[in-house]
Specification:
The complex is a heterodimer of chains A (564) and B (166). By secondary structure, chain A is α/β, with parallel strands linked by helices. Chain A is built from 22 helices and 20 strands. Chain A has a 6-stranded parallel sheet with strand order 3-2-4-5-7-6. In chain A, strands 11-10-9-12-13-14 form a 6-stranded parallel sheet, with helices on both faces. Chain A has a 6-stranded parallel sheet with strand order 16-15-17-18-20-19, sandwiched between helices. In chain A, helix 1 packs parallel to helix 7, helix 11 packs parallel to helix 14 and helix 16 packs across helix 17. In chain B, the strands form 2 sheets. In chain B, strands 5, 6, 7, 8 and 9 form a 5-stranded antiparallel sheet that branches. Classes of the chains: A alpha/beta (564), B alpha+beta (166). Bound molecules: thiamine diphosphate and magnesium ion. Chain B: It comes from Algoriphagus kandeliae.
Chain lengths: 564, 166
């Protein structure tokens, strides 16, 4: 053996360092122990955070990736450790979050024998990863990690899983790390075609009621400034998807609101009145489009999109502009005429008034005794930093927080969009916070969802991550209850929760906690929380049976958006 | 609904077939036949998949297949765009060998490729309609076993793998 040879486990850690990973979220176990042993020697170069569950580790890595734009890294053992990652992989896959997950695997000679903690994680995770691979030889470790990082972060980002057998971790090999710069079967993206830009520009120039819908693609493509310049020049009204929020400051004169099932009234309704629809980095999810047969049929559609497989997937488009929207947006800005669309914009503002009267009034300044989720978020807006990150779980509180949070800066929205994973928020907030201790991270979570990953309070305690946790407690699986009320004849089948004393739980984890029940206490409690130096748990008891509106019921068209 | 042949040019890596078939499973599309083989170029495999579906769907399937990291290129053709063949084997008990069968073999241009004390094996190469026709006839001759390959096909279009990997 040559002296320059090192253990496979060291190669794993050195490869991560070579890829400039700063932090690993993980959980140890038999098949990954050599890597954990190696980590002991590198704690000055790379940080490891021990979560309380592998699902917590991967959601934390997702939260980290979302706010940083870097690849989140996650480590788990074989068998149950690996299978606990699956929900997070599926979530990252559908929301295009770059991750590299490394799992330990039984020794190569035991593969296929039902050895202790052997599971076919490569097979199980195949549909939920952008790419995955099993590494059985020490010399294949570094190339696999290099390729994994490249795939995770390039093109349309996504999760990668690398399963490394134990023998490869303990064998000795050479470490000469070469970053991956591409390979023949994977073309990241082609340059934007000038002809498609010309066609799109002509259509936009002629349009009387053009309308921009922007999604997370703008964030992933780091094209926030390009979007702003495009809107500055064209004056086109622009609405955001759930994951697009933050890509454009809500103060921008062209910003008209949010799209989708619980988005704003005008942006949904007027989708069916525009004459040219310009979709930027969004994928026409069914929660955005409602009934496809009655979606924007009157409009010519331009789709700026990186992933060719998204073109014509749900909505047939007239002009596909394939490529990086950072490129295409600036080319398009060059090519279009300077314009304003004040009359058309005014239409949005008009309808916004309707929504204010019918919905927002009640949500923000309620007349009922019970607190509403909306007023909590509205109060947070008064005191939050401009670049505060909002991390939400899934349910009514998610939709309300999204509706009322005032997004001003990029990468301030972290939520599970495509998969709708309850339990996402707490660990994701932890991950977002660990990227930058000095940034305000506000985690809004429901009484149902928090109990899916509540153990991560332990990780928050151990890392002292100063996450501000706001539990909106309605003692219900509220979103499901709302559907039961509206579509199942108020038959509240198994949605009421008998909850524990959350304050005691938080305090048991050494986290400062406070509970608010009355309106008079709210403002001060939020102020206290946001200035507190350290993790903070604020439980707000809210109205039990409040509903989220506007709403486009399943199967309805965007123009059937309901205010009540 | 129409019959399409999907061609997939891919790296020869473990699991690739699985990754591709998942795409059909997810959308509930039945694969009529599938063959995989080496290509003219070392290390590159080709997979030929036959499906009956709409053109919209086949376009989406091809787009999704092409997204698979180790896939170099995927494309599709209608039957008119490809030259294809299938091979079928028929196992017949010797007790049923007679003049009638001999005529059938001649008429269909089938070959006897194995003769054992208890059975003979016939082979026919052609399009599905042809091998199917013979199958129906041989059912009347005590057919013991039947197997038919998936379609092996080449596109009529003049492009080569080299165009995709440069
Ligand atoms: C893991 C998972 N299981 C089930 C669901 C279905 N679901 C969506 S919202 C919701 C209720 C969430 O309740 P809670 O966390 O209290 O939030 P609320 O709606 O009350 O604000 C449920 C059960 C889901 N999205 N994720
Ligand atoms: Mg609840």
């Amino acid at each position: 053996m040559k002296e320059s040879m090192i253990r496979g486990a060291d190669i794993v850690v050195q490869s991560l360092i070579a890829e400039q990973a700063e932090i690993i979220f993980g959980y140890p176990g038999g098949a990954i122990m050599p890597v954990y042993d190696a980590l002991y020697d590198y704690h000055e170069q790379i940080k490891h955070v021990l979560t309380r569950h592998e699902q917590g580790a991967i959601h934390a890595a997702q939260g980290y990736a979302r706010v940083s734009g870097k690849v989140g890294v996650c480590l788990a053992t074989s068998g149950p450790g690996a299978t606990n990652l699956i929900t997070g992989l599926a979530d990252a896959q559908i929301d295009s979050t770059p991750l590299v997950c490394i799992t330990g695997q039984v020794a190569a000679h035991l593969l296929g024998t039902d050895a202790f903690q052997e599971t076919d994680v490569v097979g199980i995770s195949m549909p939920g990863t952008k790419w995955n691979i099993q590494v059985r030889r020490v010399e294949d470790i570094a190339p696999a990690i290099a390729k994994g990082f490249y795939i995770a972060r390039s093109g349309r980002p996504g999760p990668v899983l690398i399963d490394i057998t134990k023998n490869a971790q303990v064998d000795f090999g050479e470490m000469n790390y070469a970053p991956c710069l591409g390979f023949r079967s994977y073309k990241v993206h082609k340059p934007v075609e000038q002809s498609s830009i010309q066609e799109a520009a002509e259509l936009i120039n002629q349009a009387e009621r053009p309308y921009v819908l922007f999604g997370q693609g703008v964030v992933l493509g780091k094209a926030e400034t390009e979007l702003k310049f495009f809107l500055d020049k064209t004056g086109i009204p622009a609405a955001s998807t759930l994951l697009g929020s933050g890509a454009l400051s809500q103060d921008h004169p062209c910003y008209v609101g949010k799209l989708g099932m619980h988005g704003n009234y005008a942006p949904n309704l007027l989708t069916n009145q525009c004459d040219v629809l310009i979709a930027v980095g969004m994928r026409f999810d069914d929660r955005v489009t409602g009934d496809l047969k009655r979606y924007a049929k009157q409009a010519k559609i331009i789709h700026l999109e990186l992933d060719p497989a998204e073109i014509n997937k749900n909505v047939k488009v007239n002009i596909p502009v394939i490529g990086d929207c950072k490129e295409s947006l600036s080319m398009l800005t060059e090519a279009v005429e300077k314009k304003t669309h004040s009359e058309w914009l005014a239409k949005f503002r008009e309808l916004e008034e309707l929504e204010k009267e019918a919905v927002m009034q009640h949500d923000i300044s309620p007349t009922k005794i019970g607190l509403t989720m909306g007023e909590v978020i509205n109060q947070i807006n008064q005191y939050k930093a401009d670049d505060a990150v909002l991390v939400t779980d899934v349910g009514q509180h998610q939709m309300i927080a999204w509706r009322y949070f005032n997004y001003k800066k990029p990468r301030t929205q972290v939520t599970s969009g495509g998969l709708g994973t309850m339990g996402f928020a707490l660990p994701a907030a932890l991950g977002a916070q660990l990227h930058d201790y000095s940034r305000q991270v506000i985690c809004v979570v429901g009484d149902g969802g928090i109990q899916m990953t509540i153990q991560e309070l332990g990780t928050i305690m151990q890392t002292k991550a100063p996450v501000k946790i706001v539990l909106l407690n309605n003692n219900y699986l509220g979103m499901v209850r709302q559907w039961q009320q509206m579509f199942f004849d108020r038959r509240y089948s198994f949605t009421e929760l008998n909850n524990p004393d959350f304050i005691k739980i938080a305090e048991a984890y050494g986290i400062k906690a406070q509970k608010v029940k009355a309106r008079e206490e709210l403002t001060e409690a939020i102020e206290d929380m946001l200035i507190y130096d350290g993790p903070y748990f604020l439980e707000v008891v809210v109205e039990k049976e409040d509903n989220v509106f506007p709403m486009i019921a399943t199967g309805c068209s965007v123009e059937e958006v309901r205010l009540s | 609904m129409k019959r399409y042949t999907i061609f997939v040019i891919t790296e020869n890596f473990i699991g690739i077939l699985n990754r591709i078939t998942i795409i059909f499973t997810r959308r509930g599309i039945n694969i009529d036949a599938l063959t995989a083989s080496e290509s003219r170029v070392d290390g590159i495999h080709r997979i030929t998949i036959e499906v009956t579906t709409s053109e919209d769907m086949v376009i989406q399937l091809v787009n999704q297949i092409e997204k698979v990291i180790d896939v170099i290129k995927a494309f599709y053709h209608e039957d008119e765009g490809v030259v294809y063949q299938e091979i079928a084997l028929y196992k017949i008990p010797v007790t049923r060998l007679d003049g009638g069968l001999e005529k059938v073999i001649r008429q269909h241009n089938a070959k006897i490729i194995a003769a054992e004390p208890q059975f003979v094996v016939l082979e026919l190469t052609g399009h599905k309609e042809q091998t199917q026709e013979l199958l129906e006839i041989l059912k009347g001759y005590g057919l013991l076993e039947f197997a038919r390959s998936g379609r092996v096909a080449v596109a009529k279009r003049m492009v080569t793998i080299d165009d995709f990997i440069k």
